[in-house]
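Comment thread on ticket #2218

A.B. wrote:
> Attaching the input chain for the structure job we discussed in standup.
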Amino acid sequence: MEKETEIARLAGELENVVEQTIAAWQLQNRKVNGLWNKLSPEEILTPLAPGRNRAIYLLGHVIAFNDMMFPKLGFGERLHPELDHMFVGCSDGCANSYPAATSLKAYWYEVNEKLASNMHSLPPSQWLTQVATVEKPVFERNPLYNKLSIVIGQTVHLSYHIGQLNLLF
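C.D. wrote:
> Ran it. Output below, let me know if you need it in another format.
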């Protein structure tokens, strides 16, 4: 009986950790939403500092990285893999053009709403399992590279770029 009680307690703690992690990721997304809503069309195209990335590039970049979470977490195919060549594989300015800011904003909301829905439907017991895009031997060598770590890593990534975007204000 004591072992069952301990297992139930640990399961409850895992559920709390998962909920807190998802909440932290969503908080960073809301911060990006707030910054995006403050940016004028001119500011979106303004470099954060001379010779640095523009806001439009950073926004496309975080969309692409959130979108990469779908296959990693086992939620299916990405929604906008076409963004990679503009926002992942190269720095700002290497692409000839970017989608309109209004299109990027729609992608942002689409990706995050679908991710959040999938995250909330994943049982807590699945969060410490193998990332879907990683082979079993790799996961066995490093079990800390699990689904929960993907969300934690992306939360930190978003936070970093929010700091950069704040330079515009």
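A.B. wrote:
> Thanks. Noting for the ticket: The chain has a mean pLDDT of 93.
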